[in-house]
Structures are given as structure tokens and as C-alpha cells.
Amino acid sequence: MDKSSLFSIGEVSKMFHLSAGSLRHYEALGILAPEYVDPQTNYRYYSARQFEILNTVRYLRALDMHLPQIADFLKNRDIDVIEEKLLMQKHRVMQKKKELENVEKKIDNRLCQIRDAQSSELDVIKLSLEPPCRLIIIKNSTRLKSLEAIETSVSRISESEDEPVVFLGKVGFGISEENISNGIFDRYDCVFLVIEDEDNYSGEAENLPEALCVSVRFCGVHNDAAQRYEQLTEYMKKNGLRAAGFSREITLVDYGMTNDTKKFVTEIKIPVVPKDWFEKNFKNFSNYLLTK
Questions:
Q1: CA 49 – CA 41 distance, rounded (Å)
Q2: Is the CB of residue 272 less than 8 Å from the CB of residue 213?
Q3: What is the pLDDT of residue 169?
Q4: Least confident span in 172-176, 215-219, 228-232, 272-276
Q5: How far is CA 186 from the centre of its chain?
Q6: Dihedral sign, CA of 76, 81, 86, 92?
Q7: Which residues of 180-209 are buried (b: 16+ CB within 10 A; e: fewer)?
């Protein structure tokens, strides 16, 4: 065969910015077979009439269309077919765009959290109104004496999820309202995970309302928390407050981000109400029952 008007696989690769491996893959998928294969050397050659197909493939790949879809179109070339393929691809792109926007929001959340942790005012007790939040809660009673014990509790949260939802700064531990009131700070009653709007979580979660909280941040991890609970409860006593829910203790920065222990930051928040709130609301509830 006269090969003077043909192009070698190397020449075609260079012209169309494709690897020789890609051209062989196209051949295997039935997208583009060589015009001629030398029976002695097994070298592949292409003709100029095949360039239109290569340009079509490159264009559709630039639209991120999958090769099997391209192969199907080339076997059934028709205006209705290409319109259907493009509409399907547009839907895929829109879905991918939405997923990437969620990823961007997650990255922004982590960046804000890291920057906030780095600028923390440590060992200062504050009273603040915390916004509503959504939590996955595993209730148990555990003494966290080792990293293994912590990781075992945390791993239970996402064991049924395909998409990872566990990340440093979202996982926390809580001490019950009763144990806080009784000064028992060496035992956690629950493990929780903060679920953000961008998280694709299909399991059960609990929505917590806006809450008034006393909080403190300190340099350390969960094993260093007991002293801070004592300081928080002392503050609550002096200011006529009492616990109104389990504590929310989250390590914002630890070995997951840095080996420098001086940069570790853990935060404890305890929902509170004035001590007389319970008495007033109990009276109101009693009066309500008497009217029934």
C-alpha cells in the first residue's frame, strides 16, 4: 500500500495533542480504527479523512463527554442523537458544578474555622448566643483515656455513609447536664458530629435550637478539659446560671493539623439558662395543667 499520503501514529499524536496510547484506546473502543496497519511492523497509519472524527472527539472530550458516549454518537450520527448527548452532558455538568460549589463551601468553612482557632483568645470565659445547629449524636458513657478510644467512638458516626463527613473541628464530645451539675467531668456521655448545610448525610440527625452558652478555649486536648469545666461551672454559679443541656467540646486544632502542641486549641461550650428560669417555667407549666 502507498503510505505516502498517510500519517503515522506519532505524527497524528503530535498534530492532535494526543498520546499514542489514547489513539490505541480509541481504536479499542471502536471510535477510530487506523486507515492501515502494517502487517509486518504492526505500525498504525491514519488518513486525512479521519481528521474530522478526531476533531469531533477532541471537541466532545473538551465538553467532558465520556468516551463511550462519543463512540455511541459516532456509530449513530444524527442531529437528534447529538442533541440528546449534549443535553445529557449539560445535566452532568450542572450536577458537577453543584458538587464543586459544595466542595468550595466546605473548604471555606474549614479555612474560617482554622483562622478563627488561630486567633483564639485563650482561657477567657465568654457568654454568647450560639446559632442553631444540626448534630449526629451517639450517646454512651466513655472515659477517653487514649487516642484509640476516641477514634473508635468517632468511626461509628460515619460507618454507614459513602461520603466522608468526619473532619477535625466537627467532631465533639459532650458531658450531660446532670453530670455537669454534679461536677463529674472525667466521663463523656456522648460523641457528636456537626453537620453543615453542605454535608450529604442521609442518617438521622438532631436539630438543636439557638442557645445561650458559656464557653472557653484553651491550649490542649480533651484530656486537659476537666480543669476548664470547673472554671466554667464556677463562673455559672457566680452569675446565677445553670446547665441547660450537654456540653459541646470540640478540639479545633490538634495532631490532625499540626505536631506543635503549643498550637492546639480546644473549645468547650455549655448551654445555660438563669437558675430561676426552671422555677418560673415550672410554675407556668403547672398553671397550664390546672386550666385543663
A1: 23
A2: yes
A3: 56
A4: 272-276
A5: 30
A6: negative
A7: beeeebeebbbbbbbbeeebebeeebeebe
Find residue 126's DSSP bridge partners: 215
Nearest C-alpha neighbor of 154 from the set 226, 246, 110, 165: 165
Q: Whole-angstrom Cα distance, residue 218 to residue 265? A: 6
* 138/237: higher pLDDT: 237
Least confident of 34-43, 48-57, 127-136, 279-288: 279-288
- The burial of 148, by beta-carbon neighbours within 10 Å (0-12 exposed, 13-18 middle, 19 or more buried), is given as exposed
Hey, what's the cell of 260?
A: 506543635
Q: Where are the beta strands (DSSP E) in the chain?
A: 7-8, 36-37, 44-46, 126-130, 133-142, 171-174, 188-195, 206-208, 211-218, 241-243, 248-253, 265-274
Convert the pLDDT of each residue in 108-135 to its tens digit: 988 998 999 999 999 999 999 999 998 8
Q: Contact at 8 Å (CB) between 45 and 9?
A: yes
